Here is the input.
Amino acid sequence: MGTSGSIFATQTTAFRSQLDPQKYTFDFVDGPHPSGPAWGVEAFFPPPNYTFWQSLDPGDIAETHRWVLSLMAEKGPYDAVLCFSQGCAVISSLILHHNNERPEEPLPFKAAVFVCGGIPLAILDRMGLPVSPAAWDINNRTGRGLHEKAGAAGKEIEALLKAGNTAGAARKGLWDRTDDLVHQVASSLDPEYDPHELPKNDPSDIFGLDFTRIPECLRINLPTVHIYGIKDPRYTSSIQLASFCTADKRRVFDHGGGHDIPRTTRVSEQIAVAVSWLEKMIR
Here is the structure.
């Protein structure tokens, strides 16, 4: 929320430049509701900004799902959806509602790329799926953590802009403080760490969610790519969403950063490789 289609296009330019433009085309859309800017956005991008929904009330969620489906019917067909943060919540919840209410009908897309996002627990709860007190606690704590980081973003950006190329200026990034995260941050120097594998969690307790009690018919059975950052306060929700998806149709990549899309060459190449894999899965 608080961004726009044009902003998302800019944020994804680096990895999209690694893909063949003759094979891959993208439509970037604005959400249906005007919104204030997300953290740090106003420092780099002018308004307007948008949000996909205004609350997690059932009526607002249903309205957003109808809007997405109408947009796809008008502008599609589409092979896949690419979404970030709130967009992941919109698309994953749309798939779950579809699986629950109209499983015999095809979805208007064949695959999904989820970047730094998860499924809102309120939606799982209303569908009658088990959400433990521990899951709610982690959800609330990580939500506050991201909000606090967001609140600090403006000051961080202002300090960096003022520092410029000053000798000795600190270059510690917004996401580099990790002692306040609810999850353990794996080190790339750890021989057991693999950015292309999910953390080895007990399926009965993936940050409070018991996936042994999730019906198979509600699982996301599309080919999916999951891009997330180990330093993201909401990393836990990304792992939960990946766990909702069929393992042999799923590819993951930890870009090592926070709640963002790093534009380094290494990260861009890895995301492009994952998207290319997804394209092969649906052909």
